[in-house]
Specification:
Layout (H helix, E strand, L loop, with lengths): L13 H24 L5 H22 L8 H25 L5 H8 L3 H11 L6 H24 L4 H25 L9 H24 L8 H34 L2 H16 L6 H18 L7
Helix pairs in contact: 1-4, 1-9, 1-10, 2-3, 2-8, 2-9, 3-7, 3-8, 4-6, 4-7, 4-10, 5-7, 5-9, 6-11, 7-9, 10-11
């Protein structure tokens, strides 16, 4: 059915906006938790625990929905690609980036996910980028640029560490974009979401554990309440709940628009940092946050469908 002139744009319907908002709020809070996760335990072990919890939670959910775990060879390959790109490469790059730069700067750089998502979506999914979407993108990226300049100026690690952290984050961005675009394809819709993600998360957790053992030795675990609570929060809420919601948004409006969640995530991260880390807002940070919000509204209110 073709939308009529008075129909609301696809990206402003409640079925998209509600999960979009939930995902953005959850992921905006994860940066503080991730920072705490890498204090004692090697990053890859923390990532492995996170996705072991997430995979089990997704498998239980799939069992409750009585969705089948029977896949053909392509289905297993699809889950493996998602597991490798998103739950292994992406998160190993991001967790390590936080060793070199502040969580705020990592969150800001990760907002650039919008760019490869839009480019890959246009190339591989033939998704149109309407004028209003491009204007919103430009405004939002201007806001992200201001946030980046602000965070780079106050980052205490120095230029060499900042460069390493930014490069690692950009590698994570590219890995995440590959998974995002694959999830937006027609091929992905052949397989039920919950079992596929459960399998992808468990594959990712296994690879993370193998990499951790090879590079840092046997498992390390911190029996501290904050660490355990962080693993459960990241595994259940930030992964098992957030990723299915986010991938459904990608399938509804395309990877370019869905990536706008990453534009607002650093703003939320900095708001939380204001409360918990005494973050001080500069004029650049305020201007960047405002521009990011304006760009998001412009892009998501575009009436041209993503496809």
């Amino acid at each position: 059915m073709t939308p009529g002139p008075t129909d609301p744009p696809q990206s402003t319907r409640a079925a998209v906006l509600i999960p979009f908002g939930i995902v953005t709020l959850i992921w905006g809070s994860t940066w503080l938790v991730i920072r705490d996760q890498i204090a004692v335990v090697p990053p890859s072990w923390s990532i492995s625990y996170r996705f072991l919890v997430a995979g089990i939670a997704m498998a239980i959910y799939a069992g409750i929905k009585r969705e089948s775990f029977k896949f053909d060879a392509r289905g297993y390959a699809f889950a493996a690609v998602i597991g490798v790109a998103l739950f292994t490469f992406n998160f190993n790059f991001v967790y390590r980036a936080e060793h070199y730069v502040t969580s705020g700067l990592v969150a800001v750089v990760f907002a650039l996910l919008l760019v490869p998502n839009a480019i890959f979506g246009r190339i591989f999914l033939k998704q149109r980028l309407g004028r209003q979407l491009m204007v919103g993108c430009a405004v939002a990226m201007a806001g992200v640029a201001l946030l980046f300049v602000n965070e780079a100026r106050v980052d205490p690690h120095g230029p060499r560490s900042a460069t390493i952290g930014i490069v690692l984050t950009l590698c994570g961005v590219m890995a995440a974009s590959v998974a995002n675009v694959i999830q937006g394809s027609a091929f992905a819709k052949r397989y039920p979401m919950a079992p596929t993600l459960a399998m992808a998360m468990l594959i990712g957790a296994s690879l993370d554990a193998a990499f951790a053992w090879a590079t840092t030795g046997p498992p390390v675990f911190e029996p501290r309440f904050g660490y355990v609570a962080g693993i459960l929060y990241l595994g259940v809420f930030a992964s098992a709940l957030a990723f299915p919601l986010y991938f459904n948004v990608i399938r509804a409006i395309g990877p370019a628009k869905a990536a706008y969640s990453g534009v607002i995530v650093p703003v939320i991260a900095m708001l939380l940092s204001t409360i918990f880390e005494r973050y001080h807002w500069s004029t650049l940070a305020v201007a960047g946050a405002i521009l990011s919000g304006i760009g998001l509204v412009i892009a998501l209110s575009a009436r041209r469908p993503a496809r």
